[in-house]
Amino acid sequence: MKAFIQRKNFLFWASIIFTGFFSIWAVISPKGMTATLWNLLGQYNLHFSWFTMPMPVILLLISLYLAFGKYGKIKLGKPDDQPEMSTFAWIGTLFTAGIGIGIVNFGVAEPLVHYLQSPVGISAGISPAQAAENGIKYSMFIWGLPAWAIYTMAGLVIGYFAYYKGKKFLPGEPIAAGFSDKPWAANVAVFANIVAAGAAALTIAAHIAIGIFQIQNAVKSVSGIDIASTTGSIVLLIIMFFIYTFAAILPIQKGMGTLGKLNTIVAVILMIYVFMITNSTMIMRLVTENIRHAFLDVFPVAFTTFPFSDQTWFGSWPNTVMIWWFSWTPFLGIFIARISKGRTIRQIVLMSILVPTFFLIFWFSVFAGNGFWNTFFGDGRIIHFIANNPENVYLSFIMVLKELPGFAVTGPIFLLLVVIFLATTTTSGMISLSIITSNGPENAPKNRVIIWSILATMIAFSNIITGTLDGVKAVGVIIGIPFMLFVFLSISGMFRQMRLDYSKNLLTQANENQKAVDKLADGKKE
Length: 526
Known about the structure:
This is Glycine betaine/carnitine/choline transport protein. The protein contains 23 helices and no strands. It has 526 residues and is mostly helical. It has one domain (2-509): Amino acid/polyamine transporter I (Up-down Bundle), CATH 1.20.1740. It is globular and about 80 Å long.
């Protein structure tokens, strides 16, 4: 059995079976699958929602300890290894792979949903101004430091074992290597690898399908042409397939590096343009407040569980999104590790947590700020749309752009941004998925990238045609629950190994120092 599991293609076929099972279930019985999985998630949230919110903050504290403690100067790689990307390309790639099209889907909608539905929103009798501030506060928690701490720690544990210890690029490797003296470690690691590959395929497929919907809506808004048909979906999928497959088979600094830089530039251009043509004073006031929300309100939000309030919003938004972030850790962890070779733990923690958080402070201030401005001082169309269309809240982003002057400029930029975001995140997913299912090499085999690109695109197409997107998303969220445990096991395994390595390095250094002293003493005697 052990020899079978260690075969090169075992993870590939195991993940194919895993992915196929849920994909077929989604097509045959989409309502049954969706109801079953969301019911399981509901049961988890009912009993353990108090547990989910503090977890990312614990990871944040661990990451800060690693950055500023004795392990901060450890480099992922050999002492003379240099980074493969420039710092700008690396940060851009980190950011766009980790957040992707999500900040377009929810950059306006999420704070407004919290404003409407949360126990600190207007539905609870809170004043509109305070409810708006609370809505942005929760959005900054969900998308800010805690989210990036999850991704960063997932990348660090894999990167440490891969580049510092020469292990494979697999989600279960830190568990197997860190607990090599425990009889259960190998089996847990294999299970983590299989679930990671299946989750990656289904999550990426759902991401592609959501992105296609956004592109179709953007095209209609910008040009008036409706391509929301089966033929239109096929054409878009084929175009996107060639973009993200080609980027994935290129060397990572060329494919993902170029996409990451382009993505960042386009997003910043759109954000600056909207900032300049709208109420910049209001936005800067929001930026100031959002810095407070992002950095000082992390602990109050993490430990607020609303024990005497209705738990519907708390379970369906903050808790579910946090679990969704954990479901992305298998492939994002591998990807972050893969592009961070040659950088120290301190550099990775500080740059991959702080820089994206500051960007999102400005992003939510600009776009959600204009959404709230329309709510309080405009015609209120955006907030009414979100209240009456809970399944399509992601359309609110382009509604904000259409309410502002210059849509002839912002509309095409938005369309370009959606396309690049979709391509960037999907490319990173394809690279990671191909690495996992090829038994953890440093570079993804091109043939495996092509195979998974085809499979994920086919699953996305079936989701679009059959309307099974909710079921596939539910699989991703449910899988995030065990990965909360896997992430903490991986971190524990890394600390066990780090202590051993640090002690050995200190001993080696002490011996070298003693030899130098002895040599100097012998020279004086002579």
